């Protein structure tokens, strides 16, 4: 079963049961966070929730580990800058 979500305002489709990171990778997105001080792109690295490189904002909640969080129908996923505190 497929689910619909948006990433930075763009509609995307994922498979039910995928993580946010898996759904983004399947859609061709390779980075969804920038580092706090130098603005370097980051995405999935370890894939098991240890490195925190895959932090993303989901439905307004910052610092969600994309490699662990399941994607849900209607999720609004946005690129996170730095620590996500604005």
Short note summarizing the structure:
With 86 residues, the chain is mainly beta. Helix content is 8%, strand content 35%.
**What would the average pLDDT be, to the nearest integer?**
93
Helix content range? under 10%
* SSE run: EEHEEEEEE
What is the second-level CATH architecture? Roll
Tell me the strand percentage band. Answer: 25-35%
Q: How far is it from the N-terminal to the C-terminal residue, by CA? A: 35 Å
Largest sheet: 5 strands, mixed
Q: Identify the strand order in the major beta sheet.
A: 2-1-7-5-6
Global shape: globular
**CATH structural fold name:** Ubiquitin-like (UB roll)
Rg calculated over all Cα atoms: 12 Å
- Structural class estimated from helices and strands: mainly beta
- CATH level 4 superfamily: 2Fe-2S iron-sulphur cluster binding domain, sarcosine oxidase, alpha subunit, N-terminal domain
* CATH domain class: Alpha Beta
Q: How many structurally independent domains?
A: 1
Number of helices: 1
Low-confidence spans: pLDDT under 50, at least 5 residues?
A: none
Number of strands: 8
